[in-house]
Write a structure and sequence with these properties.
5-stranded mixed β-sheet, mainly beta, 9 strands, single chain
């Protein structure tokens, strides 16, 4: 299976829910957008190295970094 690598759509004012039909990735950055709701299990099962999202808006059990609104800083989850 081909891996795209990095998919970064941060800071684009995208809204809605995150689709579960993404190709395998290593890094997914959807931070500082208007996404909301649960992150699909298909996304969490990709075993991403980094998944950056807006933790206050997303129900995310697999996020590794939380985007801080209006900031370039992140909150790192775990080690």
């Amino acid at each position: 299976m081909n891996i795209i690598g990095i998919f970064n759509v941060s800071y684009n004012q995208m809204e809605g829910t995150i689709p579960g039909s993404l190709r395998p990735l290593e890094i997914l950055d959807v931070g500082n957008n208007l996404f909301h709701g649960p992150v699909p299990s298909e996304v969490c099962s990709m075993d991403l190295d980094i998944f950056r999202g807006d933790c206050e808006e997303l129900d995310c059990t697999c996020c590794t970094r939380c985007a801080v609104p209006n900031s370039t800083e992140d909150i790192v989850i775990g080690n």
